[in-house]
């Protein structure tokens, strides 16, 4: 640590060096009386040292919300959102996934979480004016192998999903070249993957989305029930890594999570009020998440031409800028599409908006 | 630290800071002093200067070696150092001329703070308004709203509305004085990334609409011209801290920031738990840092007359074999806030409970979070005539007094 950068009096600098303090962070975590004792400096000198250390440690000056809204500080608030590729879902999310922060997508197996993850890996590659972030995605698999075939199918059907984008632009994008796939079989390799590979790709600007599918799998198999203290520590380590990546590089991180059954709806209703399942990993993980989404399968099915799909519901459980609510969607060959049909009103809130959705025929259960 | 032996006559004296005290009959100084009659001379001086503030030399802002030399030479209190010139002092105590000069300067400056009576404090408190939450039931339970000059903590499970309440308060503190607000600015320290400008714009717009519906007389209409969404956004300062060291750095720089902005009336830290929960490998350091953080926040709140609002997570605590939810960061942090609000779910209702407060009853009220922000449950926006606080002073203060 080059103390001369801080522009302190020479006697303060020599006192710091005598006390073997190596960085501004070390100076800030020691209490004032201890610092006085360690360096032998007087109180005004210690105050000056702390002031200089704090100024050096600060990443940015306080800025007003008006400046943020006007886009004057892109690093803090870029105002970007990652669209999902479907206008109905984007409307639920007020534009899409927020760019700084951890988004959790929880649901039962077969609900469609991986589908949404794949769809986001494709939508991130579009330019900003079409809801993307003009960069690729890193997909970290922890349990099932990466669904390559399904990805190819989605890529080939992009023109039918994204009717808002000119086909020439879609044709120019090399989707599969920009999706990096990693496998992490245990927590250590996940940590290595995030701290090295993900950091490198994000720093180079090659990716601006990281999907971890799924977070729960690693924690559930590695720890016994009475190891919860160690498990919480690992959870916090992974979470701090993920938050750091997200805020440092302004990239959304999607963590896919499993669910557990809920037998008694306790005080902390961290799941949506209508379901009997709750996201796995408990309160410790829930506290680390910025946006929580849940996906569940509904009983009804819907058909269109030669395809039929079971209906799903994507719900916002909590988010700092979103109202609680949900949208019904279906999974087709080209991807996930929200469903707007007055007959389906019991399954989702009314959406007073005319969207171009293909005509549907409701099949019976 | 010595407190006065006899309490002063009729009224309660509140001493702050605690180490200043009135002159007591001086006790013989320590025997282990240097020879010569300087000790007795010091005692004589102390006896003569009967009614003057004195502080122990160890509390002066000098380096520890100088202080040690002074104490060993028999100069225990600042009154012993009076009427000495630097050469004399340096000869007696064995310090250099420069250090002697510094010591005399330090001793003569800063006479400490005079004690304040409880009546004066009560009068001062009555002057300060509280920050409304726009949920009238909660405001009533709190005796007006979130109080200025104190540290209030909001705890709750994720997603229950802590950040929403913080954003609401950041908008409400700016309500002009003619409407019963404080017209103040706010510093928002965000550690979690929950500060979304989009949502703030919603809340600001709703507050402006609410107040413009209430504007009845000319003064209020004039005030509305400066109370717009843009002015609201320009009075909210945001700082993002990525870990606990950056949070501590920000708090070190806070006094300088506050002196530049005398209109600042609210400091929000959302949340304190997030950066500190990560510090799980050195719990003793965490305890120490939280303690000093708490003291610093209390000092900022009382010294600069601002309301400090912090948010906290919930963790599961095992009590008697049963898992219960409790605010995170332990009892060490629990002493810092004077008021603790718990936001929770009960089936599909949102409830706000006052967990800890020196002046209010424990109460639970229902609230809801609409697209316009933090509001009462079961009520759409009902514009009530909000006269400035002076007329409702009586009812609010009497409720506060009987609330204990």
From TrEMBL, chain B:
Keywords: ATP-binding, DNA damage, DNA repair, Nucleotide-binding, Nucleus. CDD domains: Rad51C. Its main location: nucleus. InterPro entries: AAA+_ATPase, HR_Repair_Mediator, P-loop_NTPase, Rad51_C, RecA_ATP-bd. Gene3D superfamilies: P-loop containing nucleotide triphosphate hydrolases. GO terms for molecular function: ATP binding; ATP-dependent DNA damage sensor activity; crossover junction DNA endonuclease activity; four-way junction DNA binding. This is DNA repair protein RAD51 homolog 3. It comes from Gambusia affinis.
């Amino acid at each position: 640590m080059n103390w001369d950068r801080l522009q302190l009096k020479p006697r303060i600098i020599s006192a710091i060096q005598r006390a073997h303090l190596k960085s501004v962070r070390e100076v800030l975590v020691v209490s004032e009386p201890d610092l006085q004792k360690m360096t032998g400096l007087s109180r005004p000198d210690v105050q000056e040292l702390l002031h200089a250390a704090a100024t050096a440690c600060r990443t940015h000056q306080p800025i007003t919300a008006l400046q943020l809204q006007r886009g004057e500080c892109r690093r803090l608030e870029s105002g970007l959102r990652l669209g999902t590729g479907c206008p109905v879902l984007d409307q639920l999310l007020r534009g899409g996934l927020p760019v700084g922060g951890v988004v959790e997508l929880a649901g039962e197996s077969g609900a469609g979480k991986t589908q949404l993850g794949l769809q986001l890996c494709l939508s991130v590659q579009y330019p900003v004016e079409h809801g993307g972030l003009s960069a690729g995605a890193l997909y970290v698999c922890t349990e099932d192998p990466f669904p390559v075939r399904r990805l190819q199918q989605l890529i080939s059907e992009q023109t039918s999903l994204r009717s808002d984008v000119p086909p020439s632009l879609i044709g120019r994008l090399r989707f599969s070249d920009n999706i990096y796939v990693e496998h992490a079989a245990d927590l250590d390799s996940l940590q290595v993957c995030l701290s090295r590979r993900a950091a490198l790709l994000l720093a180079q600007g090659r990716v601006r989305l990281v999907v971890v599918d799924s977070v729960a799998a690693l924690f559930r198999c590695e720890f016994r029930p009475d190891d919860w203290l160690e498990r919480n520590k690992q959870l916090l380590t992974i979470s701090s890594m993920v938050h750091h990546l997200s805020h440092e590089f302004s990239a959304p991180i999607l963590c896919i999570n499993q669910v557990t059954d809920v037998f008694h709806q306790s005080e902390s209703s961290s799941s949506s009020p209508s379901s009997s399942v709750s996201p796995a990993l408990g309160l410790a993980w829930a506290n680390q998440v910025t946006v929580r989404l849940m996906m569940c399968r509904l009983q009804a099915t819907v058909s269109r031409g030669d395809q039929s799909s079971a209906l799903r519901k994507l719900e916002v459980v909590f988010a700092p800028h979103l109202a609680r609510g949900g949208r019904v969607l279906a999974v087709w060959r080209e991807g996930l599409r929200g469903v707007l049909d007055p007959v389906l009103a019991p399954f989702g809130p009314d959406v007073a908006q005319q969207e171009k959705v293909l005509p549907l025929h409701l099949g019976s259960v | 630290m010595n407190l006065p032996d006899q309490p002063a006559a009729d009224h309660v004296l509140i001493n702050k800071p605690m180490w200043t005290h009135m002159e007591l009959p001086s006790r013989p100084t320590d025997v282990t002093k240097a020879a010569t009659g300087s000790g007795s001379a010091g005692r004589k001086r102390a006896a003569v200067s009967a009614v003057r503030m004195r502080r122990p030399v160890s509390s002066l802002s000098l380096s520890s070696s100088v202080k040690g030399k002074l104490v060993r030479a028999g100069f225990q209190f600042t009154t012993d150092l009076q009427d000495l010139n630097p050469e004399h002092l340096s000869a007696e105590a064995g310090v250099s001329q420069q250090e002697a000069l510094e010591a005399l300067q330090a001793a003569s400056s800063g006479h400490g703070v005079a004690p304040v009576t409880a009546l004066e404090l009560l009068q001062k408190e009555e002057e300060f308004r509280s920050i409304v939450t726009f949920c009238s039931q909660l405001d009533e339970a709190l005796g007006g709203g979130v109080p200025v000059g104190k540290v209030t903590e909001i705890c709750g499970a994720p997603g229950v509305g802590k950040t929403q309440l913080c954003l609401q308060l950041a908008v409400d503190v700016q309500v002009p004085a003619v409407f019963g607000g404080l017209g103040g600015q706010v510093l928002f320290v965000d550690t979690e990334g929950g500060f979304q400008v989009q949502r703030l714009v919603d809340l600001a717009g709703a507050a402006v609409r609410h107040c413009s519906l209430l504007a009845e007389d000319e003064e209020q209409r004039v005030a509305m011209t400066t109370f717009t969404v843009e002015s609201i956004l320009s009075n909210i300062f945001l700082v993002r801290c990525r870990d606990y060291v950056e949070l501590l750095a920000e708090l070190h720089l806070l006094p300088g920031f506050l002196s530049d902005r005398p209109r600042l009336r609210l400091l929000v830290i959302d949340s304190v738990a997030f950066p500190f929960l990560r510090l799980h490998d050195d719990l003793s350091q965490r305890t120490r840092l939280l303690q000093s953080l708490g003291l610093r926040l209390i000092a900022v709140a009382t010294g600069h007359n601002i309301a400090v609002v912090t948010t906290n997570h919930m963790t599961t605590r095992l009590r008697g074999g049963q898992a219960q939810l409790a605010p995170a960061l332990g009892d060490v942090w629990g002493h810092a806030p004077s008021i603790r609000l718990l936001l929770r779910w009960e089936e599909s209702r949102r409830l706000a409970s006052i967990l800890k407060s020196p002046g209010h009853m424990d109460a639970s009220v229902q609230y809801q979070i609409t697209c316009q922000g933090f509001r009462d449950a079961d009520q759409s926006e009902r514009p009530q005539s909000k006269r400035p606080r002076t007329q409702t002073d009586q009812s609010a203060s009497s409720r506060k007094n009987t609330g204990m």
